[in-house]
Design goal:
The complex is a heterodimer. Chain A is an alpha+beta fold. In chain A, about 30% of the residues lie in helices and about 30% in strands. In chain A, helix 2 packs across helix 3, helix 2 (about 90-100) packs parallel to helix 4 and helix 3 packs across helix 4. In chain B, a hairpin with a 2-residue loop joins strand 5 (about 405) and strand 6 (about 410). Chain B has a two-stranded parallel ribbon. Chain B has a two-stranded antiparallel sheet with strand order 3-4. Chain B has a two-stranded antiparallel sheet with strand order 5-6. Classes of the chains: A alpha+beta, B mainly alpha.
């Protein structure tokens, strides 16, 4: 098990990590999710041994790693810019870590071929790095970090520089390859959809602290606080005391909550023109804007006299701006936030 | 991760301390305390004597004149180079930098072969008009010195201005045109103001080079046109007035540092402005444009290549017939000459010294480059420190060597080792300048990736750093080799009888009035020209586009 105890770090004056505690079990993919500058890459670099002036402890199976230099740790790290060696061929890139371990040449060749197969680059061995596309480079970088069978694989926004279409496709492949290699992995990303797709557990970071650790399903359904909820892309975050409507929601669903408590109306429990559900509370408002997103339209509804705007998805054709509509909120949509 | 903290790092600093700062201190000592106590009489004489103020003013004057003429000629050429696309343009631009690696003695000989007393032009005129005297009398005039300076510096100015103009794009110009500016207004309001940073930067560089010009002035001008450099040499070697030579050196050093500071300042402005536009060169269309391009090409060819071709021709042309007797004569030690060895032996000397200097310059230069890109505050201040030898004239270095390294514990005065050491001092900044860009271009993540994959510091150096900078190292090595082959100023001071190098031999042969010596000088110059041209071709082929810091 990889264990981070009270990990702290500062760049000159700026604190980048503050008392981070985290465990990564064997065979687990843990995603570090957070906005840029939240300290997730710093955390990765500390674990990799690239940063040594940190406070707290990094333990692997109970052993302190502090005195171990990066090249002695036997970890794998996949860089955001891939950091391929421009002067080496695809094969030589993949073999680099194996050669450092003084593996016999025949074993190296065998392993390289296997890795090329696994990442779908059979026959690319002799190619130069400069001749590869972005997606191909990403695969070489993955193969290179996987080849020496690292005790821990770390990936720093490995899909960050690729276009959206390729990203979705490669995220799935990545998960499959990591799982089939039976690896423990730390995966850094700022894209929550990517984290959902890849992680067994997600740690949401903000300003050097970890705000929530949960499985993707739990994280999506129960973000712990406003920061996390907003970072996961949720809107409709209010305080119960905000308006008559929100107070009504509290009375009906969460009578013991205070006015100053924040809550989230989860998009799964909010419906446009959803009349007839006795368990829901309805409210009328006027459509302020509507943005077509493909499978749904994102609609903003202004509640007159309430001073608040609700956002919800509509799957009906073209919600007309200016129309009056009813919004109904179900009990289970209300999530209290810390 | 890098060689940090290793004793290796002491090597460049120790080298600089012993062979750069110690000689400079020795000069300071001789200038200020010639007899062991503070004595400013040399300085006072320097400042109060019209002759010496005249020398200083003349140094400034010839540099200003050379700079102005260089810029004036390079400006229209740069305009044509940046605006038009034509066959052979990049080849011509690259060939035009050949003078940069040519030794001063070779250039001086080349101009003598073309327009000197025994030059091709005089030969031709004498034959055509059956004259019995040489009609073109340019030897030992200011004109031939200035022309040679333009020859040397034209390409530098051309490259800087062409690069800057190309990077700027023509958006502003097109906007002005649409707003109603005619061609004249465009030059006045747009083009000249926009090229000004490049003009200033190139001007400062050319001024710096011509301010410290030694070989060209000494050989083509003679003592009548003595600049500070020539005067230092003259005072130290001919008059043995060491305090005065030291005072002049100090004046030279102060002036050079002022110029260097100005140049770095100007160059910073140049870099921040570059890279905003895209290249705007377009094919030649109208006959006017075609004649413009042809004019520029012919001009560059005439300026840069006729002297070299004249040298080649003159070396193999005796009494109207082609033969190689001049080369055969190199094995002979001419009677009563100032030389103690046959000229051809100096080739062996030069090659030996150049190889040694290249080796030492590589070791020191590569270590220094790693220090500069290394972590810590030290690195920032190392870069300018290690470049100081570039900003110090060769004559000052040579003078420093003879006054500092002439007594125990460092008595190298009579050892041939002093020559490769002085060449190393001049050459290693070139290695640093060649290696640094490729070293800086290695992304930190590539190094880290290697580290995470298990590469220790030594593995990192062997498998990542060195392979990625090997082109830079090769360029630096070639530079070091050609610089050493052609080094004149310092060698003239320190070369002893048997250890003279090719440039020194050529200079001595030229000082000999006999025709035989002149012919030997021609042949030797051609040999040196070919060696340096070969080095130049290698540099141009190895150079990674966009990765040079010159």
């Amino acid at each position: 098990m990889l264990q981070l105890k009270d990990l702290s770090h500062a760049y000159d004056e700026a604190v980048s990590l503050r008392n981070v505690n985290l465990r990564v079990a064997k065979d687990e993919i843990l995603c570090l999710l957070g906005p840029s500058g939240c300290g997730k890459t710093t955390l990765l670099r500390i674990v990799a041994g690239l940063i040594s002036d940190y406070g707290g402890d990094v333990l692997l199976d109970g052993r302190d790693l502090r005195r171990l230099a990066a090249h002695e740790r036997g970890f794998g790290l996949m860089f955001q810019d891939f950091a391929l060696f421009p002067h080496l061929s695809v094969s030589d890139n993949i073999a680099y870590g194996l050669r450092r371990r003084r593996m016999p040449a025949t074993d190296i060749n065998e392993r390289v071929e296997l890795m090329l197969d696994q990442v779908g680059l059979r026959g690319y061995g002799e190619r130069g790095i400069g001749t590869l596309s972005g997606g191909e480079q990403q695969r070489v970088a993955l193969a290179r970090s996987l080849a020496p069978q690292p005790r821990l694989l770390m990936l720093d926004e490995p899909l960050g520089s690729l276009d959206a279409l390729l990203r979705d496709k490669l995220a799935l492949e990545l998960r499959e390859i990591i799982n089939s290699a039976g690896l423990r992995a730390l995966y850094v990303t700022h894209d929550h959809r990517e984290a959902y797709a890849i992680a067994d557990r997600v740690a949401v970071m903000d300003k050097g602290t970890i705000r929530q650790v949960a499985g993707p399903f739990d994280l999506y359904h129960h973000p712990v606080d406003e920061k996390v909820a907003r970072f996961l892309g949720f809107s409709n975050i209010f305080q119960f005391g905000d308006s008559r409507f929100t107070r009504e929601l509290r009375c009906k669903f969460l009578p013991d909550a205070a006015d100053s408590d924040a809550f989230l109306i989860h998009p799964d429990g909010i419906q446009l023109n959803g009349e007839g559900d006795p368990a829901a509370i309805a409210c009328r408002g006027r459509i302020e804007s509507s943005v077509f997103r493909g499978e749904y339209s994102e609609v903003s509804i202004r509640m007159p006299g309430e001073g608040l705007t609700l956002r919800c998805k509509s799957r009906t054709r073209d919600p007309t701006v200016g129309n009056c509509v009813t919004v109904s909120v179900k009990n289970e949509a209300i999530r209290r936030l810390k | 991760m890098r060689l940090r903290g290793s004793v290796l790092y002491l090597l460049p600093l120790t080298f600089l301390a012993i062979f750069y700062f110690y000689p400079l201190l020795a000069i300071l000592d001789i200038g200020l305390r010639p007899d062991g106590w503070l004595d400013l009489s040399a300085f006072l004489r320097l400042l109060s004597t019209d002759y010496y103020t005249g020398v200083f003013l003349f140094t400034l004057y010839q540099a200003a004149l050379s700079t102005a003429l260089t810029l004036f000629l390079a400006l229209p050429c740069a305009y044509v180079f940046s605006r038009y696309r034509f066959a052979g343009k990049s080849l011509l631009l690259s060939l035009a930098t050949l003078p940069f690696v040519l030794p001063t003695v070779v250039v001086a000989m080349a101009f003598m072969s073309l327009i000197g007393r025994r030059g091709l032009v005089n030969d031709l005129l004498m034959t055509l008009f059956s004259l019995d005297y040489s009609p073109v009398q340019l030897e030992r005039t200011l004109a031939i010195v200035i022309i040679a300076h333009v020859f040397y510096n034209f390409a530098i100015a051309l490259r800087i201005m062409t690069g800057y103009w190309s990077a700027q794009g023509i958006a502003a110009e097109e906007a002005a045109r649409v707003l109603g500016a005619d061609e004249w207004t465009l030059w006045r309001d747009i083009r000249l103001p926009l090229i000004q940073p490049a003009l200033l930067s190139a001007g400062a560089l050319v001024f710096m080079f011509t301010f410290t010009s030694f070989g060209v002035v000494l050989i083509l001008g003679g003592i009548r046109f003595a600049t500070l450099e020539v005067q230092i040499y003259y005072q130290a070697i001919s008059l043995f007035n060491l305090p005065m030579a030291a005072a002049l050196s100090l004046l030279q050093i102060v002036a050079m540092f002022a110029l260097m500071t100005a140049y770095t300042h100007l160059q910073r402005g140049l870099q921040s402005a570059i890279g905003r536009g895209k290249t705007v060169a377009r094919p030649v269309k109208s006959p006017r444009e075609r004649s413009l391009v042809w004019g520029v090409v012919i001009f560059i060819f005439a300026l840069l290549f006729t002297p070299l071709l004249a040298l080649l021709a003159r070396s193999a042309l005796n009494n109207g017939a082609w033969d190689l007797s001049n080369y055969a004569a190199l094995a002979e030690s001419s009677r009563g000459s100032l030389l103690f060895i046959a000229p051809i032996e100096s080739v062996v000397n030069s090659l030996r010294f150049a190889l040694m200097s290249t080796g030492m310059a590589l070791i020191i230069g590569i270590i220094a480059s790693f220090m500069i890109v290394g972590p810590g505050k030290l690195a920032r201040f190392l870069d300018p420190l290690l470049m100081l030898p570039l900003a110090t004239s060769a004559v000052t270095l040579g003078f420093g060597f003879i006054v500092a390294l002439d007594e125990p514990p460092l008595n190298l005065r009579s050892s041939w080792l002093i020559i490769p050491i002085s060449h190393t001092l001049v050459a290693f900044p070139f290695v640093v300048r060649s290696v640094l860009p490729s070293l800086r271009a290695i992304p930190p993540s590539v190094r880290e990736a290697a580290g995470v994959l298990g590469a220790g510091p030594f593995d990192l150096l062997r498998t990542i750093d060195l392979p990625l900078v090997n082109r830079g190292i090769a360029v630096g090595a070639t530079f070091a080799f050609t610089v050493s082959m052609g080094e004149f100023g310092a060698s003239l001071f320190i070369a002893q009888r048997e250890s003279v190098t090719i440039p020194v031999v050529i200079y001595r042969l030229m000082g000999d009035p006999g025709l035989a010596s002149y012919r030997q000088a021609l042949a030797m110059s051609v040999i040196l020209l070919l060696v340096c041209a070969l080095g130049f071709v290698m540099i141009e082929r190895l150079r990674v586009a966009g990765l040079d810091e010159f």
